[in-house]
């Protein structure tokens, strides 16, 4: 399935001790239990302290299944961006559902993937670190079943990669996609002329193979307004034109060239503009597996009328009221080191054991490193010691704060997900 199942299974042998801030306090006496042993006790969520991040089992299954089905029906290939979760157990589920490979953002993340036997990796960036290039060359030479694809956006990058790889004596050529960008965007050649020059340099480099084209439309738009969608479509059209130009003028050096685009905000536009082209069109959407109660809730195609079923938010934060210094303010024991805040502050949803009524009119106004500021009506009876569940925005900056995350089904903890950030 593209990952070492035994390596993933050994995560259940991890002992629950002080290394994990989500470890229940009642596992600290004697020899700490393993994940497997702890789950065998059929634990409930109230055994965990606060602050806490949890994942919802049903939402995870829903999101993975929905994206796999939609991608297949659209005739696209999915290599989900593993940086969102950095959780091999969740990567395995995505691969089991039909994902072609795993996309990653940097070499440390690729090393995690290789430690768990991921056999097809796309590095959605340029690999220019000499030691890293030598390492990836050794991985390719040592494992004929390992497939690796990276990006380049300049002739200088091509020359550096080729010089280092040849100097390291790497035998297998490294497959690369030429990355197209746009003025005001992120990385990527700024126009087709520059991109064609990069492609020609790749063709001339003995240690590299021209394997496709790549781009990221998410850097060019940040909402779903008609103007933003038009910007995205225009960029994707330019990417399609570049791919056709390279195929015609230079020819790709692999049997099945890759044309890759698509984060979690505009994958519907990738299907509309690039679907059906003579290439393996690879989506790299990653946030969908967790989704959220903020940015992606608003911008996801399935929230904008594509299909009949939206993704479900699979993550929630939990924090305990530790102070009510005045009638309209409470402080809770979770902060920036526990919960995401870069794409919107947490939303108070409910109080454990008491429902949502106590939070009517409440709102998070700020986060400190270790505290949440929650304004509320003076009439609210939210009390010291109450535990509040929050909806969160942006999974990429939520999961990176937790090395072990409980997966819940109603009030039962059915799994513990290990992350490697």
From TrEMBL:
Domain D-serine dehydratase-like: 314-409
InterPro entries: D-amino_acid_metab_enzyme (IPR051466), D-ser_dehydrat-like_dom (IPR026956), D-ser_dehydrat-like_sf (IPR042208), PLP-binding_barrel (IPR029066)
One Pfam family of this chain: D-ser_dehydrat
SUPFAM superfamilies cross-referenced by the UniProt entry: PLP-binding barrel
Highest rank taxon of the organism: Bacteria
Protein name: Amino acid deaminase
């Amino acid at each position: 399935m593209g990952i070492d199942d035994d390596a993933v299974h050994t995560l259940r042998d991890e002992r629950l001790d002080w290394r994990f801030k989500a470890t229940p306090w009642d596992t600290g006496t004697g020899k700490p239990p393993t994940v497997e042993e702890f789950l065998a006790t059929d634990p409930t969520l109230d055994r965990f302290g606060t602050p806490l991040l949890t994942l919802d089992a049903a939402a995870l299954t829903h999101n993975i299944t929905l994206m796999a089905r939609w991608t297949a029906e659209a005739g696209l290939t999915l290599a989900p961006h593993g940086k969102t979760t950095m959780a091999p157990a969740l990567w395995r589920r995505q691969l089991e559902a039909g994902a072609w490979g795993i996309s990653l953002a940097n070499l440390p993340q690729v090393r995690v993937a290789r430690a768990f036997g991921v056999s097809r990796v796309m590095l959605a960036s340029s690999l220019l670190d000499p030691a890293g290039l030598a390492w990836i060359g050794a991985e390719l030479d040592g494992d004929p079943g390992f497939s690796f694809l990276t990006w380049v956006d300049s002739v200088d990058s091509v020359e550096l990669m080729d010089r280092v790889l040849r100097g390291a004596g790497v035998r297998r050529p490294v497959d690369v996609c030429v990355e197209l960008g746009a003025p005001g965007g992120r990385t990527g050649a700024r126009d087709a002329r520059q991109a064609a020059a990069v492609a020609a340099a790749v063709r001339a480099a003995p240690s590299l193979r021209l394997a496709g084209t790549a781009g990221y439309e998410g850097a060019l738009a940040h909402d779903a307004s008609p103007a933003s969608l038009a910007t995205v479509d225009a960029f994707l059209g330019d990417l399609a034109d570049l791919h056709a130009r390279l195929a015609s003028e230079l020819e790709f050096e692999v049997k099945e060239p890759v044309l890759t685009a698509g984060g979690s905000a505009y994958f519907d536009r990738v299907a509309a503009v690039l679907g059906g082209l003579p290439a393996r069109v690879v989506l790299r959407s990653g946030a969908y597996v967790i989704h959220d109660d903020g940015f992606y809730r608003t911008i996801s195609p399935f929230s904008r009328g594509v299909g009949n079923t939206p993704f479900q938010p699979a993550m929630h934060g939990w924090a305990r009221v530790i102070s009510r210094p005045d009638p309209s303010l409470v402080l809770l024991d979770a902060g920036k080191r526990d919960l995401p805040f870069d794409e919107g502050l947490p939303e108070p949803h409910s109080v454990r054991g008491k429902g949502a009524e106590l939070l009517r009119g409440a709102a998070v106004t700020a986060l400190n490193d270790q505290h949440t500021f929650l304004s509320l009506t003076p009439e609210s009876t939210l009390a010291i010691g109450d535990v509040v569940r929050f909806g969160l925005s942006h999974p990429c900056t939520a999961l990176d704060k937790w090395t072990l995350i409980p997966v819940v089904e109603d009030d039962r903890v059915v799994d513990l997900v290990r992350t490697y950030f």
